Every structure is written in structure tokens, then in C-alpha cells.
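Need C-alpha cells for this chain, all 754 residues.
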Amino acid sequence: MQSTLRLNLLIWFLASSMCLCLAVQPAYAAKKAPKERPTIGLVLSGGGAKGAAHIGVLKVLEKYHIPVDYIAGTSIGAYVAGMYALGYNADQIEKIMLSGEWSKGYSDTIPRDKLSYRDKQQRDQFNIPLTVGYNNNSLTSPSGLLRGQSMSQLLRHSTGLVEQFGDFDELAIPYRAVATDLATSEAVVLSSGSVVQAMQASATVPGALQPALINGRLLVDGGIANNMPIDVVKAMGADIIIAVDIGSPLTKQENLDSTIAVLEQLSTMLTQASTARQKTLLTSSDILIRPAIDNLSTTDFSIMPLALKLGEDAAKLELVKLQPLGISEQDYLAYQASKLQQSLLWNDPLKKPIYKIAFDNQSKVSEKLLRERLGITEGIILSKEELDSALNRVYSLNKFERVDAEFEDVDQGRILTITTKAKSWGPNYFQAGFNWEDDFTLDSAITLSLAYTMTDLTENGGEWRNELELGFKKRVATEFYQPLDRDQTFYSLARFQYEMKNWDLYDQDIRYFQLENKVAQIVLGIGYNFNSDGIMEFGVIAEDGRVTSEFGLVDSINFHSTGGYFKVAYDNLNSISFPTEGNRLTFTSYLRDESYKGLSNVSNTDSDDLAWQFEADWKGALKLGNHAIVGKMELATTQNDGDFTLHVADLGGFLNLSGFRKDTLVGAHKVFGAVIYQYDLGRDVLITDLPLYLGTSLEAGNAWFNRDDVDLGDLIFGSSLYLGTDTDWGPAALGFGFNDSGQSAFYLFVGKNF
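Here are the C-alpha cells for all 754 residues:
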């Protein structure tokens, strides 16, 4: 009986082993081809937007049942190779690649509506996208024009939320990506870790994108060291190589007429040299495919459909060599099934809930604030879109160089790790601004601005900010901004500024004299960030100043005021000058004790009056396709009616009662409203990513010194027609305005908000 039991156990063990072998066999079938056929390795070279040609080659391989046992690529080739290795077929890669907004991958600018209220106001004033810091007694800057934040999200959106791999041999097809070590110029073969990081490192153009740091090495575009990694695929075990060369040819001498052309030529020389070395490794049994894409651009992603077709055509020209590598339909179906089975190992966990959220916080921002902005909770099944939105919310804190996400799959679910890396060119930063406005009749108004901010001065992230403006308006200011908690919900501020500004006084379009206003101001305030777009703030304010005329036409006025203020503001406009979505609302009230000395012919000389002043401004936009409707409303009034005050409201200028020159109308009471229509010619007609707005407006308003004079029947109506654009460097516009008072003017703005 004991022998029978042993025999039964032996039979059970052998049967279980056979079942186990049968169960795991499909998962590894794609890794090692059957001995009756040679193994095939696919090599995809770099070439930017021309990389769509690789998809055309894949389509031909799939059509003729040619299996791929190993795959490697460089730059865009690493992207296509990685997608294929993950288990996507050619049609799926085509759909993902051609629908991707690749141009957005080359901009890491945080959209205005995503910034905090404080950062919005600073960007509006300092419109030049300067990334210069100061640390350890020297100027610092990032190691690339772009940090790669947007590009990493595009790649992650392509691949799905896959975990890191201990070995890229675990993919449906064993995979390698090739990058270049920036310190040694050596080729680096990436064979494990994050597929997204491997793709991005392989395609990181030096100078344009910040180098990727992987395993302690700074990595850039693999095309410099090995643009067509034939040796890598041979080392993986391939018997036959199919190599696809999409490298660019050298530019002819007559076309080397710019700095960019020369730099591109140097890059082409490096990639051609590495490709030539790799071609010497090809044998008579290997196949080289060279699509006819020499005239296509590497940076124009609109050519991708054409590149795909040319890749397909080039592969068909090699069918005499390719077709013998094909296998039977039954065997090819089994090959595809094994790829699918292997891809399920990483695809199935995507449906698991988030088990844990961890932070690798390489900054001084509190983890509580990071978790709050992330907005992801344990227990949910996370989609690509939800992760993108979450990472954007964290990145929009404007404190980080990069915000990345990685996954680890465990039995309980998925562990999500968020890595936040502080800006490497900090912690002290410069900002710059420039604006120019001209009405083609009087002096141009040009202003240059510079700011220097020292950050992370306290545990809660205190900032000391200094600002300087020169030109039409002269101003120097210093401010200490202190968050009162780690979440930066509450804050205090202390600000001092000294400003010199000219007031032009007009009579029927003629400037009859100019006043110069010099004022020093101190503000102490406490505020509450009720969300990222809005604040409530109150405090005390004191001013001391002097008003003089240029030729002594009026007496000088010395003035002093003290009091308090209360402010509520909300701003989620996507652009301050040409908004298409969002609202901006500001309400401010002041209670001031004002005194003036030096007045003549005015009843309240040496007066000492306490008065309320109220100001309310609103601007909102509604987008309808490539059309937008923008509304504006401004109100101002004061309790100290009829008495002399320098705290006046103004009107006049482009889209601010067009036809008048800037700030022509002044008064203690103001009413203004406007409806603006703008049509985006750039995106609709010219089909560009840069907006070009054709707009028109209908405006009405006036200003009065006495409340009794306020009469809606006195409203002045104006209108305008303009052409403008909005860039990362600020707006630019050319317009013409007129009103029913007989005033008209042309306007030119560069970098000036309105």
C-alpha cells in the first residue's frame, strides 16, 4: 500500500509539473524562438518625427507573418520599439503616435489657469520666461531649455501606467533602449527599470531637454553614440537583423547659413558616424531598410503619416529578403498569442486599485500639501487621465523641476510613488519683464522689470522678493511673504515700495501738462488662500508722497494717508490679455485717513478726512470652438465725495474705453463695461499652434469726481478692432479704437497686458 501511495504521489507530481510547464510556456515563447527557425532582431534608429516610418515597417512585418524575437532602438526608435515590446501591434502604435500632441511635449510652461493666484500675478508682470537663479555666489541655470515634464507625460500616456521592470526581457519582446552618457560619451544600454524613463533618456536632445539621471549617470540622446544599435540586438541573441535607418543626410554647403543649421549639421555628423560603424556589423543574411525620407523634417510632426507610408514602401522593396523569414499563419497566431500572454503580466495589474501612495520628496514643500494637491486616494483604480491631472496639479505649485510617478505591483494592489524634484537652479530666482505700448502720436511707453526672489527662507517656505521697474513707470519694491502653516493656507506679508509715475492731463486729445507723482507705500497684511485661485487679505496701509508739475504750472502737493484695506480676489483666466476661459474677480475696500498740504484754491487745504473707497473689477471669458466672448466690468466709488483726493480711478486706452489715450479720464467714481468678441485665425484658418486673434469690442463707461454727477446717460461708447497673439513672452496686439466723443487712436502693444 505504501508503494501504491508513493506511485500515486509520483504520478501526481509528474502531472503537476507537466501542467506547470504548459502554463508557463506561452509566457516565454516570444523570448526564445523555436529551434527550427532563426531568431530575428529588429533595430529601429533615431530620426525625430520621421520615426513614424518604423510603424510602416512593422505593418509589413505583421502582414507577412515575420516574427520579432528581440527589439532595440534609439531616440524615436526607442519609443516605437518600446511600444512594440510592450505588446502593442502596428495599428495600435499608429493610432497612439499619430494622435499624440507631440508639440506639447516641447513646452514645460505651466498654463496660467493652473498657477496659484500669487504666481499668476507675478507672471503677468514679469512676462519673460527667464530660468536663471543664484546660489553659492554664482548665477545658475537648468541644464536644458526644457525639463521634460510634458514629454514624460506624453510617453506615459502612450505606454500606460506600467510598473518598473527588473529586466526588459520580461516584456512581450525583449527590449533595449540606447542612450549616451553625457560625461563619457559612451553608449549606455538600458535594460531594466522604467520603460518611460528609458524612452525619454534615449530621446533627450542635449541642451534642449534636461539630461535624464538614471543609475547615477547623466543620459542624453543615444543617437550621439549609437543611432542604430545593431550590436545591441546581436548581443541579445538575434541570428538575423532587420535594421531600419531613418537618419538625416548631411546638409549641403549652400544651406549652412544659420546657427541652427550648423548645429544640426554637427548632430547629423555624429549620428551618421555611429550609424556607419553599425552598418559594418551587418552580414549577408541581415536586411537594411532605408526609407526615402531624406527631405522630411525631424521636428515637423505633421509629416508622420507620410513618413509611415514611406516606411511601408521601403519595407515592401525588401520583400524578396523578408518573405523567407515569414512563418505559417498558425505559427504566427501562436506567436501573437504568446506576446499577448506575456503582456498580461503587466497589463492585468493596471486594473488593480491603488494600495499605497508614497512620496520621494526632494523639496521643502510639505508632504501634506503634495498629497492634497495630488488628490488621489488609496483604493481607486487609477486611469492615465486621472494621473496626468494629478501630476499637473502638483507641478503647478511652480516649485519643481520635475514631478514623476512610478508604480510597483504587489498582492494588495499598486504602490504609487510620486517623486518631486526641486528646481536645480534655485533656491533664489530672477524674473524679467518687458512691455512696450505706443499710440503713434506721443511718447512710447517702455518698461523693463526685474525681480529677485529668495525662497525657502523659513520652515514654512518664506520668501523675500525684490522688484525693480525702469522706464515709463519707475518703481522699486521689497516684500517678505511668510506662509503661516506648512500647507501655505494662511500667510502674512510686509511690503515697501517707492514709485514715480507721470500723470498726463488732456483736453480734447491734447496734453496740456504733466504731473509727476512720487509715493512711498508700506503694507502689512494677513491673508487666506481659500484655494489655488483665490485669496482673502486684510491689513494696514500707509502712504507718503508728493505731486509736482513739470514746469511749476501748479502748486506742489504733499500728501499722507494711513488706513486699512480688505481684498477678495479670484482668478482662473487662462490668459490675462486674450482669455478664452475662466474668470477674474477682484473686490478691494480701503478706509483711509488722508491729508494734503500745499493745495491752493481748494476748500480742504490741510484737510484731514476719513473715507471709504471701493473698487470692483471683473473679467470673464467663454469659449465656443475657435470663437470667444470676453466680458469686462469695472466699478469704483468713494465715500469722501467731492473732496480732493489722489486716490482716483482712471479710464482710457485699448479695450478700456478705446479711442482715448491711456488714463485720459480720471475721477473718484467710475463705471465701465465691455463685451469683446475674438476669433482665433491661427488655429482655425492658418492651422498653427500659435493663436492669432481677430477681435472687436463694444465698450461703455465714464468717470466723475462727484457722485451727484454720475449719470448713465453720460456714458461714453467706444469700439475697437484688433489683431493680436498670445505667447509665452506675453501678448502682442495692433488695434484701432474710436468712441462717440470723437476720439480715435491706433494702439501697438508688445508684452503689455490689457
